[in-house]
Design goal:
The chain is of the alpha/beta class and 313 residues long. It has eleven helices and 14 strands.
């Protein structure tokens, strides 16, 4: 049996406003609204659970109705939350405003309680963390806690991934010591911040991270696909040609698909095919998850999106 994946970071209520027409500033815009469980770490954990990967979510819930609902959604999805924390306060909420084509216009994050995952809290859960096959954390976690996780992962030989989430949290970790980090997963907006704006080209910015000791930089390039840069190799894959309904959670799904590939002992190229296929499926629905979707359905989609001799399964 594969070791579990530990996902550490935020769990939010996702409130998404889908506008009907091009957004007009300083006036009323018509929109429909949906409520789903969200948060990068929680979304990735949810996807992994649906793909039949053993997963533990370490997050922070508020002691309100939203927190109770988020816990129930996690349990129903098959996510273990025994190392999570409940605080006396409100749960986090992510409010996104989407353009008619499903792309993000802007978003607001309120009451994020993830700062309660401190190095002291992590210290108390060393035994559980030591059982992990992979540890993933979103960059909303305190930089001091990310530093603790990096040191812990190096000590125990556990691959550690950091998902930057967005530009503001990426900026907070730009000065972190990253030597020994197994993978970081920026998009094209986050990469220059993480590379501390050294160089004007993508390769120069990637090199800045590799020079700091990051083993793999997985650059998400939207409709162009993605590329994994390592010191001695580079692997690229084009995106699946689809019609986008909602971009929410697509990047998170991509990371989950990649980790599934690693749990199946696949090389980077095959992991990217799985990652892109799951992302494509999420882009074609509203919200960050697809009820009833599972590992076999995803692997079937891979052969549809990327019909070549490479065997996955």
């Amino acid at each position: 049996m594969s070791k579990p994946v530990f996902c550490i970071g935020a769990a939010f209520i996702d409130e998404l406003f889908h506008t009907r027409d091009a957004i007009l500033k300083a006036t009323t815009n018509e929109a429909s609204v949906s409520k789903t469980p969200g948060g990068v770490a929680r979304n990735i954990a949810h996807q992994l659970a649906s793909l039949e990967v053993d997963v533990e979510l370490m997050t922070v819930f508020g002691n309100d109705g939203d927190g109770d609902w988020l816990k129930s959604q996690c349990r129903q999805a098959g996510i273990r939350i025994g190392t999570s924390l409940t605080i006396d306060g409100p749960s986090g909420r992510y409010s996104g405003i989407l353009n008619p084509d499903g792309s993000l216009f802007t978003a607001f994050l309120t009451h994020s309680p993830v700062e309660h995952i401190t190095p002291d809290y992590l210290e108390k859960h060393q035994q559980e963390l030591s059982t992990a096959g992979f540890i993933l954390s979103c960059a909303n976690v305190l930089p001091s806690s990310l530093a603790w996780l990096l040191a812990f992962s190096k000590l125990h030989g556990i691959p550690f991934l950091i998902e930057p989430v967005s530009v503001p949290p990426a900026r907070r970790i730009a000065e972190m010591e990253l030597d020994g980090l197994w993978m970081i997963t920026p998009n094209e907006d986050e990469l220059p911040v993480l590379g501390k704006e050294k160089g004007t080209t993508t390769q120069e910015q990637v090199n800045a991270l590799l020079d700091r000791g990051v083993q793999h930089v997985w650059l998400h390039q939207g409709a162009k696909g993605s590329t994994i840069y390592s010191r001695d190799a580079m692997v690229s894959l084009h995106a699946c040609p689809i019609e986008v309904v909602d971009c929410t959670g697509a990047g998170d799904a991509s990371v989950a698909g990649f980790l599934l590939g690693k749990q199946l002992f696949k090389e980077h190229e095959e992991c990217l095919r799985i990652a892109h296929s799951l992302s494509a499926e999420i882009l074609q629905v509203e919200g960050a998850n697809i009820p009833g979707f599972n590992r076999q359905k995803l692997l079937d989609r891979v052969t549809r999106y990327y019909p070549d001799p490479c065997t996955i399964g």
